[in-house]
C-alpha cells in the first residue's frame, strides 16, 4: 500500500542544504502494522510527511494506495490525503476554536455525505473509544496534553481511512491509555484491514509492530524490515 | 523547597466547575529528584503550573523556595518564576521567531547582567549538553519534535535556577537521548543542589526519581512519597 524508491528530502535552510531523508526505499503491504524508529532528528516525521503528501520529495518515487503521489502539488496532496489517509501529527495540530467533538468531526464534513445524526454517532463512537466522551465540548486549551493527543487520534480514525500515519501517537500518554490506543488500532487493522504506519520512540508501540524500520541520519538501515 | 497544603485548582468552564487538583498536600526538600506520575488528565500539569506560578490556586497554600506564592498575581508570578525557576513546558512553548540559540539565551537576558560573551559561552555549553550545538541558528519550525524539546530543556537550565519544573521532558526523545538528559539533570542536582520536579509517564524518569507522588483524578494518593 506504500512503495518508496530512493525517497529523498533535502531542506534548503538559507542556502545550507539539510538532507533530512536520503534514498529511502521500502514497501509496506496493505494491513501492515509498521513502525519507523530511530534517534531524534533521524528523519521519521519527514518520512511520514512525505507519505502523507504534506510535503514533496526532492528526489525518488512514492506510491501510496496505488497512486503515484511523487509529483502531487499542495492542493492535490491535501485532497488526496483527505480522501485516503488519517494523519496523527506529532504536535497534534488541533483547531483551537473548535471543540473536541468538532475537531474529530471535521474530516467527516470534508469526506462523507452523511447526515448530522450519522456523523454524531460516529464521532461519539471514537470519543468513547479514546475515553473522552465527557470532554466532547471542551476546547483544546482546556485539555491536558494526553487528552489533546487522543482527540488527534480519534480524528485520524473517524473516516475509517485505509491508511493511518501516526507520528509518535503515545508520547503524552500514560501506560494504560497507550496500551488501550494500541489495542484499538490493532482491532481496526484486524476488522477493517487498515494499514498503520508509526513513527515512535515508545517500546510499547515497537512491541506491537509486526514490521520495524530503523532510520539513522536520514538513511534507512540495511537490516530494516523484520520485527 | 516546595511546600503545599490542600492545594486546589478548580477551572470554571462555562459555569461547570472542573476540579483539576483537589487538596494536594506535600513537601519536597531542596535537592530532591521528584516525580509526579498518574494517568492522562490526573492533574500533573495543573500542579506544576501552580508551583511554577503560571497559575493561581483556588484554595490552599503554596510556599516555593521559602516564599509564600499563594496570592501572587500574574506579573509578580512571572517575575518570581524568572528569578528562581526553570520551566520545561509539555508543549515546549518556544518563541517561533527566535533561533534555538536565542530561545535558550532569553532567560539570561531577563535575569543576569552578563556580557554578550559570557552569555554566548553559557548558551553554547547548554546546547552542547543536549547535542544541539550545530542547530543553534535553526528556528523551531526547522527542528524535529525531539530537537524542540531539547531546546526547551536547555532554556530551563541556562540560568542555573535552584528549582527546575519539567513537564514530561522526555516525551519526544528516543531512549539514548532521554537517558542523556536524565543524566545531565542528575549531575546538576549533584553538583549544584538543584531541585528537579517532574511530571512524567516515562519509566526511565521514574527509575531515576528518588521520590514519587501519584495523582489520580486530581488527588494525591495516600502512599505517595517513597520511590
Ligand atoms: N484551562 C483549563 N480549563 C478547563 N479545564 C482544564 C484546563 N486545563 C486543564 N483542565 C482539565 O484539568 C484536568 C487536569 O489536567 P492536567 O493538564 O493537569 O492533566 P495531566 O495530568 O497533565 O495530563 P497529561 O498526562 O495528559 O498531560 C484535565 O481533565 C483537563 O481537562
Ligand atoms: N522545515 C525544515 N527545515 C529545515 N530542516 C528541517 C525541517 N524540518 C526538519 N528538519 C531537519 O530534518 C531532520 C529530520 O527531522 P525529523 O523531524 O524528520 O526528525 P524525527 O526523526 O521526526 O525526530 P524526532 O524523533 O525528534 O521527532 C532534523 O535534523 C531537522 O532539524
Ligand atoms: Mg518527529
Ligand atoms: Mg500534562
How would you summarize this macromolecular structure in one to three sentences?
The structure is a homodimer of 227-residue chains. With 227 residues, chain A is α/β, with parallel strands linked by helices.
What keyword list fits this structure?
homodimer; 227 residues; alpha/beta; 6-stranded mixed sheet; 4-stranded antiparallel sheet; 36% helix; binds adenosine-5'-triphosphate; binds magnesium ion
Question: How would you describe the overall organization of this protein?
Answer:
2 copies of one chain form a homodimer. The relative contact order of chain A is 0.20. Chain A is α/β, with parallel strands linked by helices and 227 residues long. In chain A, helix 3 crosses helix 4. In chain A, the strands form 2 sheets. In chain A, strands 6-7-8-3-9-10 form a 6-stranded mixed sheet, sandwiched between helices. In chain A, strands 2-1-4-5 form a 4-stranded antiparallel sheet, with helices on one face. The mean pLDDT of chain A is 95. The radius of gyration of chain A is 17 Å and the shape is globular. Chain A starts with a strand and ends in a 7-residue tail after the last strand. In chain A, 36% of the residues lie in helices and 26% in strands. Chain A contains 7 helices and 10 strands. At the A-B interface, helix 5 and helix 6 of A face helix 5 and helix 6 of B. One adenosine-5'-triphosphate sits at the interface of chains B and A.
Amino acid at each position: 500500500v506504500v512503495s518508496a524508491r530512493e525517497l529523498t528530502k533535502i531542506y534548503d535552510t538559507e542556502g545550507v542544504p539539510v538532507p533530512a531523508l536520503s534514498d529511502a526505499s521500502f514497501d509496506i503491504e496493505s494491513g501492515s502494522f509498521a513502525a519507523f524508529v530511530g534517534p531524534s532528528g533521524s528523519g521519521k516525521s519527514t518520512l511520514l510527511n512525505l507519505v502523507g503528501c504534506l510535503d514533496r520529495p526532492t528526489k525518488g518515487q512514492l506510491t501510496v494506495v496505488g497512486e503515484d503521489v511523487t509529483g502531487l502539488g499542495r492542493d492535490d496532496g491535501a485532497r488526496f490525503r483527505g480522501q485516503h489517509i488519517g494523519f496523527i501529527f506529532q504536535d497534534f495540530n488541533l483547531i483551537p476554536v473548535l471543540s473536541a467533538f468538532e475537531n474529530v468531526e471535521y474530516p467527516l464534513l470534508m469526506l462523507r455525505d452523511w447526515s448530522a445524526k450519522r456523523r454524531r454517532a460516529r464521532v461519539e463512537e471514537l470519543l468513547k473509544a479514546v475515553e473522552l466522551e465527557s470532554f466532547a465540548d471542551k476546547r483544546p486549551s482546556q485539555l491536558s496534553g494526553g487528552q489533546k493527543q487522543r482527540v488527534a487520534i480519534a480524528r485520524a480514525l473517524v473516516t475509517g481511512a485505509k491508511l493511518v500515519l501516526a507520528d509518535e501517537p503515545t508520547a503524552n500518554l500514560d501506560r494504560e491509555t497507550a496500551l488501550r490506543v494500541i489495542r484499538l488500532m490493532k482491532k481496526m487493522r484486524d476488522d477493517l484491514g487498515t494499514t498503520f504506519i508509526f513513527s515512535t520512540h515508545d517500546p510499547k508501540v515497537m512491541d506491537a509492530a509486526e514490521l520495524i524500520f530503523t532510520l539513522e541520519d536520514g538513511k534507512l538501515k540495511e537490516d530494516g524490515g523484520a520485527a
